[in-house]
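Trying the structure run again after the queue cleared.
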Amino acid sequence: MHLVLDAMNDASRWSPLAPDGVTASAQISMSNDPDKFRYGADGVSARVNTTNAARGHTLRRTLPPADLSNFDELRFWFRSTRAADGSPARPFFLRLRLGSAAMPLADASNAWFRYLPAFRAEAWELVRVSIADLAPQVRGALSVLELASVDDASSECNLDGLLAAREQMLGDVETEMIARLHQRLSVGGAAVAARVHNPDDPAVAAMPYIQIIPRAIQLSAERSTSGETRTDFTENSFRLRPPSVPYDLYYDIDVFAQNRPHKAEIYEFVLKTLSPRSELIVNGMPLMVELINVIPEPRVALSLPDRTLLSFKVATWQTAGVSTPAVLPYRDVSIGVSAKAPV
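Done. Tokens:
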């Protein structure tokens, strides 16, 4: 599940401030960027620019108080014109802090912060930061976001889709499938509902509706378990996020309507929405969903099929375990793979 904190599509909500936290700054700025964005219907991201005199200058946004007690982490997409991993050659240049009315940013006990990593230049990367160590006074009523410049070199980067999240593999996928299908079509003057079938609940929905039937959960044989990833960068430390295990979730989709023309229209809507291949954006992450071919079962001569089902596979991941502190000295080897032919 997730809660959108800032879609990063309206730069006017952020105030550029000098180090005193009051005076307007000309050394750091945020603008809407319609050319570089990640996911979402808004088609825009937030571009942040800093000068070589921006150290200590900030961008700050005030939010309606948001309770993050049921969430584990923050997620957002980040793209930078230069890499930043905390090494001497590639220092961090932006820092994220959070505050609330009960514990403002100026409170000395508000010590939570994270540096924003960019492991590759000019590439969108999903940044995930834990809020397990965020003070309860902030976690229970977050109302201030702050991005601070922490480097003496100028920089340019983009942020998109800041949200709070808690991973629930099955529930998250099914919630997104419902969002894609529920009441997005009307037939015969009635909105078509979508629901996930639960055999333990005999309640019958009113037609017309789309029924999503969970069929199987399988460990993916085509995708390998991911490795540990570096995350939660603070001063001279970071954590290692455990590997994610790949799973394939299989669903059948059935359609219920009063007549065949309405039924056919709903089937076509489902096909156009989900097949042959598309993406579900789940907690900020793209998951592949594809229509799969199912061999029809042999039928007794002259018998008529009862239901016509569409079968889909969703390729997803489940984090195995919790992040752990990195043991220093830590060495990391990055290997770049290119699909281009050798020259």
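The longest helix spans residues 260-274. Worth checking whether this holds up in the mutant runs.
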